[in-house]
Amino acid sequence: MAWTLSSIRTKVRRLTGRLSANQLSDAVILEYVNQFYRETLLGELINLRELESWWEFNTSVDDEDYSISATADYILGKPLYVAGTEINFFRDADDFYTHYPQTYTEETLGTGDGSTTVFSYTALMLPIKPGTVVIDDQTEIFTSSGGTLTGDQGGTGTVNTTTGAISVTFNTAPASGQKLRVQYEYWSTGRPAAGLWYERELVLRPVPDEVYPVKVKRTKIPTAFALDTDAPLYNDWGKLIAYGAAQDILRDYEGPETVSYTHLRAHETRHDLVCRLLLE
Predict the structure, then answer these.
(1) From its phi and psi, is residue 125 left (phi > 0), alpha (psi between -120 and 50) or beta?
(2) CA 63: distance to chain centroid?
(3) Phi-psi category of 264—alpha, beta or left, where left has phi over 0 and alpha has psi -120 to 50?
(4) What is the pLDDT, as a whole number, of residue 43?
(5) pLDDT tens digits, residue range 240-270?
(6) Spatial distance between the Cα atoms of 259 and 137, rounded to a whole number of angstroms
(7) pLDDT band at residue 50 using 50, 70 and 90 as cut-offs
């Protein structure tokens, strides 16, 4: 049998018992099919050497986010090396930030006297993560973009995320005795010990304190299904994609506790599913 999107969708409908578009639209099935095909199947279950290559780049000082080339779709995986040493690799953001938490602080920038509009301050925790600075006097709120502070009442200012130097000019002088708050996220810097692949970006922690060479395995993602005649990269994968997508649909719509053995042996692991279907 030659598998196409049309036959995969038909198989998914039979497996899930949702035979009509009123029960489950073609668009929803397509989303599940592509997610399993392009993310779960190749990202977690099957490794094809012809789709693999290395992504190599150098870090920048105080820069945690690195985006892969937009010219092709890739997913990253182990191993991940920094300066020749393999480091921890995460796909789960919650797990990553449990080990390497985001750190926020709130400080008093100054106190209003009813006439002064210009205030200067040096942040205590460095370096500051760009774009996270917020300043307010309970009347005007400043947010940051790059090195610029912009107030919602017309005020202006600057911030140096490396030195912590902040200068802000309020549109209207803060009231006498009013505390001026500055909030921001700051980083712990050093040689990266872990990386998170999330939303097509590689996040490194600690944030690099100097230039380090990075090398990580990447896998090119096949083109997503779109037309009914579109076929998987390998025909043998058609049945596997249908079963995997159907399993995800049943778990999302019914919950794992309600999916019986006859519904895809829903409690078997992904690896069991791959092995069983490829051997059938």
Answers:
(1) beta
(2) 16
(3) left
(4) 61
(5) 899 989 988 988 887 654 444 344 444 455 5
(6) 55
(7) confident
Q: Write out the two tokens for 86.
A: 């393999």
Question: Where does the pLDDT of residue 172 fall: very low under 50, low under 70, confident under 90, or very high at 90 and above?
Answer: very high
Q: 197, 198, 222: which is closest to 33 by C-alpha?
A: 222
Q: Read off the tokens for 196.
A: 């998170």
Give the DSSP H or E segment for 75.
Answer: strand 74-82
Place of tokens 């690099």: 208
Which H or E run contains 107?
Answer: strand 103-111
Q: How far apart are CA 237 and CA 26, in angstroms?
A: 20
How high does pLDDT run on average in the chain?
A: 88
Indicate yes or no: pTM above 0.85. Answer: no
Q: Where are the beta strands (DSSP E) in the chain?
A: 52-58, 65-67, 74-82, 85-90, 103-111, 118-122, 134-136, 141-145, 148-151, 156-159, 165-169, 179-186, 189-190, 194-198, 201-205, 207-208, 213-220
Backbone φ and ψ for 38, nearest 5 degrees, come out as: -95, -20
Q: How far is CA 45 from the centre of its chain?
A: 20
